[in-house]
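Many introductory courses stop at the sequence. We go one step further.
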Amino acid sequence: MKRTLEKIDYDYGKAKDVIEQAYLSNEAVVQNALKQESATRTREDQELHGLYEDIIKFQEEIDYEVIFTEIQNQIDLDFKLTEALNEGLKNANGHDKPDFVQNQVTWSLKTNKFKEMLEGAKQLLNMKNLSNILEDRLPEDYSMNIKTAPICGESSNTAIYGNSKATYLKTALFYTKKVASVVTNNTVKLWDAVDQSAIMHLLPLPTKYKPENFSECTFSYNQPYNGDASIEGVVIPHSSYAFGGQRGESRYGAAGKQFGTEDCSSWIAKLFGCENQFSTVHQLYAHRKQSSSLGNVGEEGDSVVDEINSRFNSVKVSDPQKDIKAGMVLVRRKFDMEKDPKQEGNGIGGHTALILGTADNGQTIYTLGFNRNMPVKEGFGVEEFKYQDEGIKSMIMR
């Protein structure tokens, strides 16, 4: 084994003390969340090593130049096919079903990151890094196995977690495995384990949507499920995050797939045992109702907002250092201060995560959660936020 298996020295910077205290916390929700992150990262490691073990079996049978050319050609083809897929999804209202977009295209499918993923994998798969992979080594400046939850957005470390390196590596390994099997006349099914995987997720395609020639795409899926008719869809390598989480997907039931994709609010809802999936807009409405603040509170009788209000209390923060504690939930909504200086509307974006602790007299909040801003930030990990931030309404719930 030439891959980096030992625990690496990961620089947590200012977050180090907060993270260490979080692992010692008596808050059950904090311990549960940290265990979920650890289990997800462990499963990802296992699957990545499994891909390597599949690939090195072809090592002596292949010409590196041939496989390099074939991989680049396949990526170029997939660029065209996924671009056509996304164009078709944008124009989906023209299909037979008038509710095609609303009811059949999940958020995660509509907001897929194929373009960024393929660009990253193509850049990674130069001849030197391809040789490293085929010879059981990690690419340059890539390392695995860290002791605790990673920092999302930390680019100074070589660890593949918390940024898009992991997604690029997974995609590169899938390409290498596929093309190596083809050029050696071996049959390999890439997506057989998709329902148990922590590194790939199936996004079903809408009924009656048949992208032309999409079966030639590496990520196309058309296999029976539980003895039923074949499911047509797209498999996307991931690093735990997808916008929308698993909303709108019936394949895995209400609880969703273990190790499946989540977004910030879908995970918080599941972590706290909520029946309804909510967004940060719903959290904003709930906060306003509880704190009697001005602004839109949504429709009366909204079951999602009502459930948030039944499960969470909005925290009045007088002293951030004393009042903000591990196990609480941070909710942030961004506002256009020129158009909405009093922050009475819905805002233009948001984020929510579990609070692990604070620093700088409570003005810096460290959280655990799901986020993505490729390529610098992606995955399930720790993030740092300012409690008071320009154009941001920060709310604390417990």
